[in-house]
C-alpha cells in the first residue's frame, strides 16, 4: 500500500494541496490522512474511490500511476519551484527599489 500512498502524495503535491486540504475534503483528521499517505493505514475501496474522485481520476488510475508519471510530476514540480525562486528574487529586488524610493522621498536616504 506504500505505492498507493506515494501516488496520493504525488497527486496532492501536483495540485499544490496540503495534507490538511485533502483531509478536510475526505472529512478525516490530518493524522489519519497522513497514515494513508505513508502506507501505515490500508484503505478500503470506498475510501480509494473517494480519494480518486478528489483528484479527478478513477481508482484504477490512482492505483496504476507509475514511476514515469511520478517522475514527470516531480520534474514539473521542480520547474515550478525554480520559477518561484526567480520570481522571489524579482520581488526582493522590487522591494529594495520601493524602500529606496520611499527613503528618497522622505529625504532620509543615506548614499551607498
TrEMBL record:
Residue ranges constituting the HTH cro/C1-type domain according to the UniProt record: 8-62
PROSITE patterns with a match to the protein in the record: HTH_CROC1 (PS50943)
Keywords from the named record: DNA-binding
Coiled coil (UniProt feature): none
InterPro entries tied to this protein: Cro/C1-type_HTH, Lambda_DNA-bd_dom_sf
Keyword DNA-binding: yes
Statement: the UniProt record of this protein carries the keyword Nucleus: no
Gene3D superfamilies according to UniProt: lambda repressor-like DNA-binding domains
Pfam families assigned: HTH_31
Listed name of the protein: HTH cro/C1-type domain-containing protein
Taxonomic lineage from the root: Bacteria, Pseudomonadati, Bacteroidota, Sphingobacteriia, Sphingobacteriales
